[in-house]
Write a structure and sequence with these properties.
This protein is α/β, with parallel strands linked by helices. The protein has one domain: Rossmann fold (3-Layer(aba) Sandwich). The protein is 37% helix and 22% strand. A six-stranded parallel β-sheet has the order 3-2-1-4-5-6, sandwiched between helices. Helix 7 links the parallel strand 5 and strand 6. 39% of the residues are buried. The mean pLDDT is 98.
């Protein structure tokens, strides 16, 4: 079985508080990947960046003072463009999720894991590195055509960094 990790495809990252044109542009590719994994009977796990009302007082909030993905808000929700039915959803308070890596590791007959979503240069790379460290003999792939970074340059830099860590990158 394969696992698709759909990272933070939330309203605030697509067209909300931290949205970009690049994030909007990958939506169709993300939908295609989800449909393909579902059709093939594979496991799909979504992550959801999750902050509290005190976000601006947190370490992250002090470095990025833009309230976003506040639990329970419209911006926190996974975009309605993506079908999450039958999928697992993990709320994560920071960039990378140990819980995601562990849930992937618990997959029976795991053949490989693929990551897509937002942002390539923050949460996608963090989770890809955690999963690769946890499952160093398992193929880990990131589809760069179904990811977007904070900027096009930081997106490309993140993909190159992942390649150096033996994560297969589709670009």
């Amino acid at each position: 079985m394969k696992v698709l990790c759909v990272i933070d495809m939330q309203n605030d990252f697509i067209d909300g508080a931290l949205g970009t044109t690049e994030a909007v542009a990958i939506a169709d590719k993300v939908k295609e990947k989800i449909a393909l994994y579902r059709k093939n009977g594979n496991r799909i796990i979504f992550t959801r960046d999750t902050h509290g009302e005190d976000y601006l007082d947190t370490a992250e909030g002090k470095k990025l003072p833009v309230p976003h993905c506040i639990k329970g808000t419209q911006g926190w929700q996974i975009s309605a463009a993506f079908d999450t039915e039958g999928c697992e959803i993990i709320d994560k308070p920071t960039f990378g999720s140990y819980e995601l890596a562990e849930r992937v590791a618990e997959t029976e007959n795991l053949e490989g894991v693929e990551l897509i979503g937002l942002c390539t240069d923050i949460c996608v790379i963090s989770n890809a590195m955690l999963i690769k460290a946890r499952l160093y003999e398992t193929p880990v792939t990131v589809d760069g055509t179904a990811c977007a970074g904070v900027t096009p340059d930081s997106h490309r830099n993140a993909l190159e960094s992942m390649k150096m860590c033996q994560i297969e990158v589709i670009d």
